Amino acid sequence: MSHSTFGRLLRVTTFGESHGPALGVVLDGVPPRLDLDLHALQAQLDRRRPGASRFTTARKETDTVQALSGLYEGQTTGAPLCLVLHNRDARSDDYAAIKDLFRPGHADYTFLKKYGIRDHRGGGRASGRETAARVAAGAVARQLLAPLGVAVLGHVVEIAGIAAPASRPEDAEQSPVRCGDPIVAQRMEEAIDLARQDGDSVGGVVEVIARGVPAGWGDPVFGKLDALLALALMSIGAVKGVEIGDGFALTRMRGSQANDPMVPPDGFGSNHAGGTLGGISTGQEIVARCAVKPTSSIRQPQQTVDRTGKPAAISVGGRHDPCIAPRLVPVAEAMVALTLCDAWLAQRAVGGS
Amino acid sequence: MSHSTFGRLLRVTTFGESHGPALGVVLDGVPPRLDLDLHALQAQLDRRRPGASRFTTARKETDTVQALSGLYEGQTTGAPLCLVLHNRDARSDDYAAIKDLFRPGHADYTFLKKYGIRDHRGGGRASGRETAARVAAGAVARQLLAPLGVAVLGHVVEIAGIAAPASRPEDAEQSPVRCGDPIVAQRMEEAIDLARQDGDSVGGVVEVIARGVPAGWGDPVFGKLDALLALALMSIGAVKGVEIGDGFALTRMRGSQANDPMVPPDGFGSNHAGGTLGGISTGQEIVARCAVKPTSSIRQPQQTVDRTGKPAAISVGGRHDPCIAPRLVPVAEAMVALTLCDAWLAQRAVGGS
Amino acid sequence: MSHSTFGRLLRVTTFGESHGPALGVVLDGVPPRLDLDLHALQAQLDRRRPGASRFTTARKETDTVQALSGLYEGQTTGAPLCLVLHNRDARSDDYAAIKDLFRPGHADYTFLKKYGIRDHRGGGRASGRETAARVAAGAVARQLLAPLGVAVLGHVVEIAGIAAPASRPEDAEQSPVRCGDPIVAQRMEEAIDLARQDGDSVGGVVEVIARGVPAGWGDPVFGKLDALLALALMSIGAVKGVEIGDGFALTRMRGSQANDPMVPPDGFGSNHAGGTLGGISTGQEIVARCAVKPTSSIRQPQQTVDRTGKPAAISVGGRHDPCIAPRLVPVAEAMVALTLCDAWLAQRAVGGS
Amino acid sequence: MSHSTFGRLLRVTTFGESHGPALGVVLDGVPPRLDLDLHALQAQLDRRRPGASRFTTARKETDTVQALSGLYEGQTTGAPLCLVLHNRDARSDDYAAIKDLFRPGHADYTFLKKYGIRDHRGGGRASGRETAARVAAGAVARQLLAPLGVAVLGHVVEIAGIAAPASRPEDAEQSPVRCGDPIVAQRMEEAIDLARQDGDSVGGVVEVIARGVPAGWGDPVFGKLDALLALALMSIGAVKGVEIGDGFALTRMRGSQANDPMVPPDGFGSNHAGGTLGGISTGQEIVARCAVKPTSSIRQPQQTVDRTGKPAAISVGGRHDPCIAPRLVPVAEAMVALTLCDAWLAQRAVGGS
After folding, report:
1. pLDDT in tens, C288-301
2. N or C: which end of chain D has fewer CB within 10 A?
3. DSSP state of D101
4. May I ask the CATH architecture of the domain C91-349?
5. What confidence tens digit (pLDDT) does each residue in A176-211 have?
6. Where are the domains positioned within chain C?
7. Contacts of D148 in chain B (CB under 8 A)
C-alpha cells in the first residue's frame, strides 16, 4: 500500500523513479471540455526543472511532457489524463558507491526496512524527481481554477534564518532564490553560496498564497481545508512543518488579537487565520507556509552505517541543490492548486460552487 | 461531502453536534479478539472531559460511553464498533443571543456560506465536543497498539509564549495545564489566569511523542507518516500549525546539523527528523507538535456582523476554557494513535509487521 | 477491514448486530437543507419489519428509528446523520443450541475462519437485521431523489420458479408476497406455504425499477452504473445473482435484437439494456433484477459439523421467513436509491446535474 | 469523477483511449520483491489481443507491454508499477462516418450527455481496448497469487444459447471459442459464423473459476466477495449479468437443496454457493459467471439518430468480433484475479493470511 494517489474527486496518481524509464501522473476526475494548454503546463515544469539556475543541480533533464490519454482535439474529455516525462540524464553509476550505504537524512534505510528491497539509484521513488509529476498535475489544476478567478502564487520567505517578511510573491520569479524582496534575496544567495563552499546545505520557508477562493470550500472535521493543505504540503519530501495563516505565531497572541474581526457586509478586518475558519474557506486569501529542511545530500563527510550494520563515512557527491527551497516553490504551489481544485469539485457535489 | 471519516484500514467516522442528542463514533476495521477495556476507554474520555480543572469550561458532561455494536463477550469481533456519548448539559439558550451573529474566530460564517444553514447551538458540528468521539476512538487504537509496545504520550510545551523545553510527558498529567515541568507549569497557569481576568484567552503548543514504533510504518509519496500526522493534527479545530521533529527549527540549521547520523548497527545519533525519513518510521521516537490558537470565545467585546451584514459588537459568554491547549492533549494523542494504528494495519497488508 | 461503508459522496456506514444493543447507520455527505420526513422514513422501515405478514418471521421489533445527529429544526445540515434502531425482542437463548454448530448456508463457518471469533446470536453481523439500517439510509436517499423526479420501485417477479412477467410494481404492496400480479401472487403464496409445511424454504427474483433518472449518471470503466448496482445488490446477504436490463436473456439474442434503436429526437425504441449504455444512464428506466436464494434457515434436519470438526445434524428452529424475497424488496430498493443518489452527487461534481 | 480506479489495497488505475497514443495501467500497492515475469504478462495480453483467431477483429495490435516504473532489477519494489501499451493500428478514418451518429448499443449518446464532448474514434474511452490494461494488471495479480496456490481459469460455457455444461476450463485454450467441450465448441463456432454471415452478432456466458482460495477472504456487509466480484465483472463493457455459484438457478431450488452440507472435518458436500458464505470465501472453488451481450457493432442497418436528433440509418463497419465472449475470457479472469489479490491483502491487514 504505497499510497501514490492524492485527492478524492480529482484523483492524482504519480508513478516513476529517479532513474527508471519515466515519471508520470494519471489525473482521474478532470472535468471535461478544458482546452488544455500544454505550453503553459510545460512552463510550470520548466520552473521546477533542474539546471535552471546556479543554485540547482546540474542534472540535464528537458522534462518534456507527453500526454498519453484523456485529450480529444486538445480538450479534456472526462477520461483520465496521463502525462509522462521520460528520464534522459540518469547517471546511475554516480550512485554505485552508495548502493550499500544509508545516506543520512534520506529514505534509504526506511525503504529497505519497509520493503526489504530498495532502488538506490538516485533515491528511487523517494527522489525529488517524483515532484515533477506533481507539478504537471498541478498545472492542470491551475488551468481548471483560472476561469474561477483562483490563482496560486508561491515565494521563498526565509532561507538559512534570513527572513523576508516584505517579499511579494508577484516578484519572486525574478529572483534566483524565488524571494520577492530583492535586497533580502541577495543575502539569501550569499548564505547558499557559503553553505555550498562548505560542502553543506541550508533550509528555508516557502509560502503559498491562493487568491480568489470563494467562501465555502473545504469540509468540517477530518476534511478541513487546513488539514488537507497540511497533508498536501507535508507530503513533499523535504517539508517538516506546515502553518496556515499565522500558524505558530498565533500561539503567542491573545484571542483578542488572533480573532479576525468581521466588517460589513461580510468581510474581515485582518487575516491571521489564513483564509479558513473551521476548516472552510472564508473568501480571504488562503495562506500556507512550509518548513523546508536543508538538503540532505551534502559533500561533507557524515557518519553512517552500511547494510550489514558496520560504521562507515559517507560524502554524498553527485548533483544536488545546496538549498531546495527555491525549486520547491512550484511543487508547493502545485500541491495547493490540487487541494483547492479537489475542494471545488467537492463543493459542487454538495450543491455549492 | 462533509468528510467525517478518518483512516484507510481503521476507518473512524464521527457524528454528532454539541447540542444534539448524542455524539459518537463508528470504528470499522478494528482487528478481532481485542479484549476491549471500557474502563480504560472511559479514563481517556475523562481526561478530555469538561469541568476537570479550573482551566476548563464548567459544562457538566459525564461523557459516559456506551458501546452499541461490535463486541461479543467483551471482545471485538471484526464488526464495526459504535461508541456513543449522550449530551446532557446542553444549554442551548446560552446561544440564542448569537443565533444571527458570526462569532470571530469561529466557523459560524463559513458553515452558513457552505451549507446555507447552520446549527448555531454550541457551535453545532464545529464544536470542540466533537473531539470527545475522537478520544473514544483513539482509546481503542491505544489498546490495539499497546501489545506491540507502542505508547503515545502528549504534553503542553508552551503556553502564551512561555516554553517548557524540559517538560517530561510522563509528568504532564500531574499538572492542571498538562506541562511536565512543574516550575514552568506554574508560570503558564498565571498567564492563563491573567488572560481570563482580562476576558481574553491564550494559545500554546502541544507535543505528542510515540514510543516503540518499529521502522517501516508509513508510505512513500502522499502517504508519508509526516503527512498523515499533519492531516490528523491539523484536523483538530484550534490547530493552525504542525511540525514533525525539529520542524521549523530545521530551516535554520545546516544539513550537517540537521541530518541524523546513523550508528551501528542500525541506530541514530540524534532525532532531528522526529522519527521518520522519507515519510517512513525509523524506529526512533515519533515527535509531532501542533500550534494551538488562543480560544476564539472571549468575553471581551469584538467587532463582527450579523447575517444581514450589519455591524455588531459581540461578547461571547457561556462556558469556555481560556486556554484550550491542556484539554487538547488527549485529543492530539488520540489522533496520533489512530494514525499509527492505521499505518500498522497498512504495513501488515504490505507483508510487514 | 470489514468494509461497512457504501458510497463515495453519500457515504453510508452501517453498524450493529442482530442481538446487540442497537443497529444503526451514519450517512455522511447528505446535502443540506432537506426537510427530513421521519414518518416517511419510518414507513420504509415498517415495510421491512418482521411480523408484517404471515410469511415473515414472528420476531417482534418495532424498529423505531431515532436520529442522533445531523438535523437542526428538522432539516439536514450537511453534518453526518446517525440513525439508530434499538433491538428489543432479541432471544439469544434460541441460539444457544447452535453456538458450536455451523448452520449450512450461513456465514457461521466463514466468520470464524476469518476472525477467529463469532457472535453466533442471531447471526451477529451477518444477520438480515443489518438490512434495516440500509432501509433507513435508503429512505433518506429517496427523499433526496424525489425532488429530482426520481422514484425507485421494487416487486417480486418470481418465486419458486413461478414467474410473473406482467407484474406491475405499483401494485406490489397490496400483495403479501409483493408481486404486482394478483393471480400469480396467489400461486406464489401457495408455493411458500407448501415449503413451510415441509420445513423447507424457497427463493425468488426481485426486480427494482428506477424512473426519472436523467441521462448522464454513472461513470465509465470501474464506476459503471451497472457495476455499482451489481455491487449494491449483491451485497445483500441472500442475493447470488444480478442482472441489468434483460441480463442473461441478452446472451441468447442477436445484436440486431439486443441493441435498442434510437428514435428522434433522443429517445429509444426499446430498453433491453435496462437504462444504461457504457455504464451511464440513458434517461430510460433503470431496470435491475436480483436472484434471492431460498432462506438458509430451515427446520428440516441437515448435515453439518461442529467447531471441532465432528459431524452433526442440525434443524434450525427459531423465527424465519420461508421465503425472504418479499421482505428483500425494500432492501433492494434502498440499495438502488443509495447508488443513484451517489451517482447524482458525482455527476454534480463533474459539472452536470 | 470518471472512476478509473479499482481496488482498495491493490489499486489499479487504467488510462487510455482506443485511438490515442497509448493505453496503460498504474498498479499501486503491489507487494515488494515479486520477480515480475514480463513474458508471462505478455502471454496474457496475447490471449486478449485482436487478430488471434478468425473470430476476432482484424485490427493489428502487437500489444507489447512496457514497464515504465516500479521495478528494480526485475523485482517489484513496492512502488507503483506503470505498464503501457502503445496504439499502432488505429484507423480513425474508419470512424469519420459515425462522428455525428449514435451507434445503438454503444456509449456514444451517454458519453456525450455526461461530458458534453466525446472522442468518437473507436469508442474512445469506452472501447474494449481499455480491457487490455486490465489484462496486464490481472497478469500481475496472477503472479502474486500463484505462490499462494491460487489459480484463476475461465471458459465460455454458452454462446447463442448453446450451453456446454461439461466444458472443462483446462481445455478451453485449445478452442477458438474458448469452450472446453470440443463437440459443443464446434456448434458454437457454427452459430458465430452464421451470425457473421447475416451481418449480425451473438452473445454468450463466460465462467471464471478460482482454485486454492483459502477460507476467510472477503468482508461482511458491503465488502462481500460476491459483491466485489459482481462489481469487477459488471464493469466489463459487454457484461449485463453476474452470478456467483448457481446464481439464478438457486431461486428455483428449495433451501434443503441449495444449502451446501458440511462434511468432517471442515469440508462441504456440494458447492451451490460458489465458494462464499456471507460474502467470505469457504475454501471451496470460487465460481462466477457473467452474461456477455451480443456485440453491439453489426453490419446490419439499424435505426438511430444523429447529434441534432434527426433519424438516420447506420451500418457499423470496421473490424469487430461477431461474438466477444471468447476474447472476454482473459478479461474476466483478470478482474477476478485482481479482486482476489485485493481481498488477500485486506485479509493480511486484518491479521489473517
Report:
1. 999 999 999 999 99
2. C
3. B
4. 4-Layer Sandwich (3.60)
5. 999 999 999 999 999 999 999 999 999 999 999 999
6. 91-349
7. none
